[in-house]
Design a protein that fits this description.
Layout: E1 10-13, H1 19-29, H2 36-44, E2 48-54, E3 57-67, E4 70-78, H3 87-101, E5 106-112, H4 116-124, E6 128-138, E7 143-152
Parallel strand pairs: 4-5
Antiparallel strand pairs: 1-2, 2-3, 3-4, 5-7, 6-7
Length: 154
Amino acid sequence: MSAVMEAQPRIEPMRVDDVDTVLEIERLAHPYPWSRANFIDSLNAGYSAWTCRVDGLVVCYAVVMRVLEEAHLLNITVRPEWQRHGYGMLMMTHLFSTARAHGAKRLFLEMRLSNQAGAGLYRRCGFAEIGQRKGYYAAAVGGEDAVVMAAMLS
């Protein structure tokens, strides 16, 4: 199956009934996935949570926390077999637009130091490294460092 963007993708607000599908993707894509509670708590808190669907299939999702003039990308994940076909960039474009529309001036994120694919996407979106958090992420031994990045939205 080719995952090249052929069908028209639709970005929609994430709903509680999307969580099972999102969890399935999360577990496929990450060695230390978010829990059901992480997603439910994000939805209940009113975070900006989105899915990207192609022919009804969730291929990407994201969760952003907005606070005053800042937004924080908490999670963005593309279904593994659909990666590197433009869905991450499509979602990032949507996240930038919605964050701006809600008055955010900067978007922040933390990323695993080993996430080179994510680093490329984030740099193409205008993010720059502003710091690191030692041992921030769970790892098989100890913790993995996080790269802290920020992008200006205005």
